[in-house]
Amino acid sequence: MDKDIFWKGKKVLVTGAGGFIGSHLTDALVSKGAEVSVFIKWDSGSGSRPQLIDNLQQSIGEIKNILKGDIASEDAIKTIKANQPEIIFHLAAEAYVNYSFDHPVEVLKANLLGTLNVLHAAMDLKEVRQIVCTSSSEVYGTAQKESIDELHPLNPTSPYAASKVAADRYCYAYWKTYGLPVAIIRPFNTYGPRHTYDVIPKFIDLALRNEPLTIYGSGEQSRDFTYVSDMVEAFMLMGSRKEAIGQAVNFGNGRDYSVNFIAEKIRELSKSKSKIVHVEKRLAEVQRLICDYGLAKKLFGWKPIVSIEEGLQRNIKWEKKQRGR
To answer: Do 293 and 303 meet the contact criterion of CB atoms below 8 Å apart?
Structure first.
C-alpha cells in the first residue's frame, strides 16, 4: 500500500503534540488525510495554550479533538480510551535533560507513568493497530564502539535518560507479556523549526543576536543531529509498518558532530559576530552519540536525506523569518 494512502481516514492520537517533533508529526499526519486527535498538557499555569497556537497553527483547524490533561495522571487513561484511536504516537515527556537534574521525580512521573498510562489505555482499545512509544538515544550513554546499534548496552547517565530506559523497557515488556502492538522509536538528536531548548536552537538564537555562544566543557562532545523532516518520516514508518511491532529502532544521521563544529558552522551560516566561550562542563554529559541506523534501513529502507549544512541553513532561515529579518 502507498505510504500516503495508508493514513487517509486513520484515527490517530498524538500525545505531546504541542511540542517540537509532535507538532511537525501532527502537521504531516493531517496533510496525509489522517483523522488526528492531540493530547496536550493543560493546566492554568502551564502555558500550553500559547504553545498549541504557535506550534500547531498550520493544522489546528483540521485537528479532530484536542484532549487536555496530565499524561502522568490516571485520568489520562480514561481520556485516551474515550478517544478510541487506531494508532497512537506517544511523545509526551519531560524531555530537557538539565531539568531532570533538579526535578528527577517529576521527570520520572511524566516519562514512565505517562507511558504506562498510554499502554494501559491501549490495552482496552479494541481497534488499536499500533502504539509508537518515543524513547531516546540518551538511553545508550556514551558510544562504546564506532556507532550505536540497538544491541549497544543501555547506560543512562542522567535522571532523564534513566526514566526513558524504564519507559522503553516497559513498552517492550507489554509487547512480550500482553501482545500489545508496541513499536519503540529511539530518535537521536533532532533539530529544526520550533525547537527551543537544545544546543542548535540555542546557538541560532544567540548567533542572530550576536551574543556569545556558550559551550559546556571542551566542546569536543559530539552528537548525531537529524533534521526534523527526516525524523517525522521515521515516526510515520514506525506507525504504519507491522515490521516495527516489538522492535526498538534507532533513527539518526549516522555521523556525529562536535559542539565546537556546530557553534562555528552556525556562526558562519548566520554571518554572526558572536564569540564562542567555554564554561564548566555539564553534569552527566554524554561524550559521544552516533547512530547506526542499519535496522531502520533493513526494515523500512529509511535513510536520512537532509545534510547538517542544509538543515542548519533551513533552521536559520526559518528563525530569521520568525523575527522579521
So the answer is: yes
258 is written with which cell numbers?
Answer: 562536535
Whole-angstrom distance, CA of residue 207 vs CA of residue 216: 17
The 3-class SS string of 170-228 reads HHHHHHHHHCCCEEEEEECCEECCCCCCCHHHHHHHHHHCCCCEEEECCCCCEECCEEH
- The residues with which 183 forms a beta bridge, in sequence order, are 132
- Annotated catalytic, 160? yes
Q: Domains in the chain, ordered, with CATH?
A: 10-190+226-253 (3.40.50.720)
* CA–CA distance, 158 with 285 (Å, rounded to integer): 8
- The cell for 284 is 552527566
The CA distance from 308 to 315, in Å, is 10
Q: Pick the closest to residue 149 from 203, 199, 186 (CA basis).
A: 186
pLDDT averaged per 10 residues in sequence order, the chain, 325 residues: 84 96 97 96 57 77 93 96 98 91 95 98 96 97 94 96 98 98 98 93 97 95 97 98 98 97 98 96 87 98 98 97 83
User: Residue 214's beta-bridge partner residues?
Assistant: 277
Catalytic residue among 96, 99, 140, 160: 160
